[in-house]
């Protein structure tokens, strides 16, 4: 383990013994109370799954603008599957000036798929959910693209399940505590493309504005392009998240803060513009925004409350929460 506000944690000892699991759980609890951000190695995701996904991502964003535009997310899709080039995550913040944020959209393009967009997607939803949540994924006509993305998505599903098991241990819960709350998860896998900045962005405009993530946890692949990810520490300073080859960045989202009664923090972060002398370099990142099953009720976990620590948040269904966030960031 490498110490720091965003420490590096090796997961390879997970499941090797009860003692190893206990130690990993204790470290994770400490980090999630402090920054809510860690870098993981020893995660077991096959190298080829990552490199195939990265190659497919670069090929997609290199397509002519008119080809990407054919996959533009349908306005009625609440999860924006397909290609996106407008909007600001910062508009979803609690105190955001939504119209102002939307006038300064993130300087990025995105491409999104969701498990609900696969052929059996509708079976994963409760009867009262918006049927548009099962809008089919949109695939570019690039050889190998859909296979690479489906393979990477499956690898992330496994890893997210492994991390949620460690989270349960970290919270003194049975190791399978989260299982029936994530077995029909509705996770967006989003590729972020940050183009070269021939013209400087407008004052105040960022590659990705200040925001917290919305779900249970995010598993982020990032490349080493300049103009990268920063997290805010307790003093308000912005710290660079290190790039470590073969690693993923993992961070807590809002729903995990609600679940844990704020024992764990959903820390705000942003993606800065590259310095002008490196402005001709692009960057790619691919977050897997793990989102519990639509009808998982996110309410204070029993081990996170006590006589002096009453529940602080109203309970909310996972699906209702994310649909509300999307509509605030991108809707209307
Ligand atoms: O590009 C990155 O490194 C992070 C992007 C991010 O925070 C997001 O998409 O939520
Ligand atoms: Fe984020």
UniProtKB/TrEMBL annotation:
Pathway: Antibiotic biosynthesis. Residues 184-292 form the Fe2OG dioxygenase domain. InterPro entries: DIOX_N, IPNS-like_FE2OG_OXY, IPNS-like_sf, Iron_ascorbate_oxido_reductase, Oxoglu/Fe-dep_dioxygenase_dom. GO terms for molecular function: metal ion binding; oxidoreductase activity. The keyword Oxidoreductase applies. One of its GO terms (biological process) is antibiotic biosynthetic process. Keywords: Antibiotic biosynthesis, Iron, Metal-binding, Oxidoreductase. It comes from the Bacteria. SUPFAM superfamilies: Clavaminate synthase-like. Pfam families: 2OG-FeII_Oxy, DIOX_N. Belongs to the iron/ascorbate-dependent oxidoreductase family. This is Oxidoreductase. It comes from Streptomyces viridochromogenes (strain DSM 40736 / JCM 4977 / BCRC 1201 / Tue 494).
């Amino acid at each position: 383990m490498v110490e720091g506000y965003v420490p590096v944690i090796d997961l390879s000892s997970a499941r090797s013994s009860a003692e190893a699991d206990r130690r990993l759980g204790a470290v994770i609890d400490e980090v999630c109370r402090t920054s809510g951000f860690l870098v993981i190695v020893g995660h077991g995701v096959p190298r080829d799954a990552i490199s195939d996904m990265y190659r497919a991502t670069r090929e997609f964003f290199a397509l002519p603008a008119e080809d990407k535009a054919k996959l533009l997310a349908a306005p009625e899709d609440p999860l924006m599957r397909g290609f996106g080039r407008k909007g600001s995550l910062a508009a979803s913040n609690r105190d955001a000036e939504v119209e102002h944020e939307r006038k300064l959209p993130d300087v990025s393009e995105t491409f999104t798929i969701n498990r609900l967009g696969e052929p059996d997607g509708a079976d994963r939803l409760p009867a009262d959910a918006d049927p548009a949540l099962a809008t089919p994924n949109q695939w570019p006509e690039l050889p190998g693209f859909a296979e690479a993305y489906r393979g990477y998505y499956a690898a992330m599903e496994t890893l997210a399940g492994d991390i949620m098991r460690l989270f349960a241990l970290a919270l003194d819960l049975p190791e399978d505590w989260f299982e029936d709350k994530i077995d029909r998860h509705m996770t967006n896998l989003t590729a972020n493309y940050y183009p070269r900045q021939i013209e400087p962005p407008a004052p105040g405009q960022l590659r990705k504005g200040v925001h917290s993530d919305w779900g249970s946890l995010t598993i982020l692949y990032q490349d080493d392009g300049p103009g990268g990810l920063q997290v805010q520490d307790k003093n308000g300073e912005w710290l660079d998240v290190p790039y470590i080859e073969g690693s993923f960045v993992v961070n807590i989202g809002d729903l995990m803060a609600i679940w844990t009664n704020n024992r764990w923090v959903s820390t705000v972060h942003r993606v800065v513009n590259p310095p002008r002398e490196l402005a001709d370099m692009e960057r790619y990142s691919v977050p897997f925004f793990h989102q519990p099953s639509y009808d998982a009720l996110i309410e204070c976990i029993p081990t996170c409350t006590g006589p002096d620590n009453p529940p602080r948040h109203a309970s909310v269904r996972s699906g209702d929460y994310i649909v509300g966030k999307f509509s605030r960031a991108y809707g209307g």
